[in-house]
From TrEMBL:
Name under which the protein is recorded: Uncharacterized protein
Superkingdom of the organism of origin: Eukaryota
PANTHER family, per database record: EXPRESSED PROTEIN, MYB_SANT-LIKE DNA-BINDING DOMAIN-CONTAINING PROTEIN
Length: 90
């Protein structure tokens, strides 16, 4: 993924994303500074390692949400929250 911009992620930022409500922003065009959009980041996370198997199994979903939110934040996307991921996954 050449040319991606990465940002420092703190635990507080991820916790804030898991708590605070957001306004609706399309998953397909919210990339920051020419970076990937939310759906591309989510799909890349799902195909990475054994993440898809972890998602489909009974693994701790809160931990998985934190990992996904950390990926969003690394790419400068800070408006996503856990509930949006849950809705998309249904």
């Amino acid at each position: 993924m050449a040319g991606l911009v990465f940002f420092k992620v703190t635990s507080g930022e991820i916790d804030r994303q898991m708590r605070n409500p957001i306004r609706s922003v399309r998953w397909t065009n919210d990339g920051v500074a020419g970076g990937p959009d939310s759906i591309a980041i989510l799909l890349a996370w799902l195909i990475g390692g054994n993440n898809y198997a972890r998602w489909r199994s009974g693994d701790d979903k809160d931990e998985l949400y934190r990992e996904i939110l950390a990926e969003f934040t690394r790419h400068g996307i800070t408006h996503r929250e856990r509930s949006g991921i849950i809705q998309l996954g249904r």
